[in-house]
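Hi R.,

Here's the chain you asked about this morning:
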Amino acid sequence: MFQFTLTGTCGRARTGRFVTSRGTVQTPIFMPVGTLGSVKSLSPEDLHELGAQIILGNTYHLYLRPGCDVIERFSGLHRFMNWDGPILTDSGGFQIFSLSKLFKITEEGTTFQSHIDGSSHLLTPEKSMEIQRCLGSDIIMCLDECIPYPANREQALAALERTTRWAQRCKDYHESQGPGPHALFGIVQGGMYEDLRRRSAEEIEAIGFDGIAVGGLSVGEPKELMMEMADINLGALPQEKPRYVMGVGTPEDLVELVNLGADMFDCVMPTRNARNGQLFTSRGTFNIKNATYKYDKSPIEEGCECYTCRNYSRAYLRHLYASRELLSYRLNTIHNLHYYLDLAGKMREAIGKGEFDTFRKDFYSIRNTE
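And the predicted structure, written out as tokens:
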């Protein structure tokens, strides 16, 4: 069961709604990253209170630990982690690329060594589909080939062509398992080459998926180049399907990509940076460890309605961080995710009112004024 409806536009910015068997998601939306079946330091109840509509799990990590043999005993990841909302799982390809010390890509799939114990594994398009179905994912991602930046044209073309062939294999396997609640998204590649990006978008759309993701961005390229490639892909993708920009990014990235027509995002930045003491506000970011906050009685951001800002001062949060108290991770993460989810909500509201241009100008006008 999956259905996407475009509900409004303002320029290229758009609002939408997709329905899954576990709930409805309003877009644009940010998806908190729960790599190992947990958004670090938070409970599912916290995520509900924050207004998270959908979260992300990681195929590579969950396959290695705890493994499908464990998760199958709970009839899927939702019951295992006690989250009753939708879950999107990535294919595992990027983690193999980024974490494995040794991996080899062939037409069959990717052979890699586990970053945990060095054991050898083969992830094929079919195996990725099998694992994600075991997890009970509401949105399953096709296995693609990730390439580094910079990559030459020959490398980008080869990865694009393999990604297309693997996408067809993913769809064939997915359909062979019969109807179910899982939506399937294809992934566009093409490196930093405009014509390859357009070609990949055409080929992935021709196969036919419930939604399409823009992959291969935020891999070390300059921000201007990332936006250029995103602009090309988002302008070429069909209006009637959700568009997911993977692994991005800063609040500014989200605003600019929504302006270009993106619907869905995920990134570890708000959670990882929270654990490193970096906090997001409408005026920019700051690090809570700085000595200037030692006596500061104010919240992270005046007017913020998150649990952390309603109850705790910057001075206390600095003390927790300096003392390496685990509560620091939790309170900082609550605020940062609230900021990201609230930003997505404000963008939906502005688009619905036909005022996204004004929202975007106001967003930048108050950045870095603290």
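The longest helix spans residues 326-352.

Let me know if you need anything else.
M.
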